[in-house]
């Protein structure tokens, strides 16, 4: 699968076509709920606009909405631009102030797509790194050693449970999983036990 990208920060651009103003914004988001919060705050920020059309690329949460424009003339062209750029975890919103001249379906498709494309010209793209989780059990005596290794390798500890032994859930880039298992086994002199290393 080709490399996917997301944005390091929100970007925006504005165009005017036949007296209609189009403000295009592309915003990094983690999931649909966050995207809807951002959309809601843009509606509050620009209450005088006629349309707040959006397109979201975030795995199964992806979607698009024409917000009152003729069906297929806003959300879908915006989504196509995001997909063409191999983006994910981004919300595109185009805020439109109608200028009194109708643009027709073709004109709208071009305007909405162009507003998103122009905003993305200023984007700082970051590669999306696919993460996986490692679940392991280690003796108490080894906990500090493993925690220190995690800190050094910038591996996140998502959960820690203490019973007869310590159970840790680690989050790390998928590409580093097998090396991490080997490192931890060596570190714990073979006393670590991996419960599962399924991608989450």
TrEMBL record:
The highest taxon in the source lineage is Bacteria
Which ranges carry the UPF0029 domain? Answer: 136-191
Database matches in PROSITE patterns = UPF0029
**Pfam families for this protein:** DUF1949, Impact_N
InterPro entries xrefs: EFG_III/V, Impact, Impact_N, Impact_N_sf, Impact_YigZ-like, Ribosomal_Su5_D2-typ_SF, UPF0029_Impact_C, UPF0029_Impact_CS
- All copies of domain Impact N-terminal, residue ranges: 18-120
**Family statement drawn from the similarity comment of this UniProt entry:** Belongs to the IMPACT family.
Q: Could you identify this protein by its name?
A: YigZ family protein
- This protein's species is Parachitinimonas caeni
> Taxonomy-wise, where does this protein's organism fall, top ranks first?
Bacteria, Pseudomonadati, Pseudomonadota, Betaproteobacteria, Neisseriales
């Amino acid at each position: 699968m080709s490399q996917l990208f997301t944005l390091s920060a929100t970007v925006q651009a504005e165009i005017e076509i036949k007296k209609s103003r189009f403000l295009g914004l592309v915003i990094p988001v983690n999931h649909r709920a966050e995207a809807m919060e951002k959309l809601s705050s843009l509606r509050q920020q620009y209450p005088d606009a006629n349309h707040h059309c959006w397109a979201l690329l975030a795995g199964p949460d992806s979607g698009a909405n024409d917000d009152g424009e003729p069906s297929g003339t806003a959300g879908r062209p915006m989504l196509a631009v995001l997909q063409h750029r191999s983006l994910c975890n981004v919300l595109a919103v185009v805020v439109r102030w109608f200028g009194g001249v109708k643009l027709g379906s073709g004109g709208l498709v071009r305007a909405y797509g162009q507003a998103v494309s122009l905003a993305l010209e200023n984007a700082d793209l970051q590669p999306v790194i696919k993460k996986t989780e490692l679940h392991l059990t280690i003796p108490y005596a080894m906990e500090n050693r493993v925690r220190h290794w995690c800190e050094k390798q910038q591996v996140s500890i998502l959960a820690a449970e203490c019973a007869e032994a310590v159970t840790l859930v680690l989050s790390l880039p998928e590409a580093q999983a097998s090396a991490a298992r080997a490192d931890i086994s060596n570190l714990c002199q073979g006393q670590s036990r991996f419960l599962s290393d399924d991608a989450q």
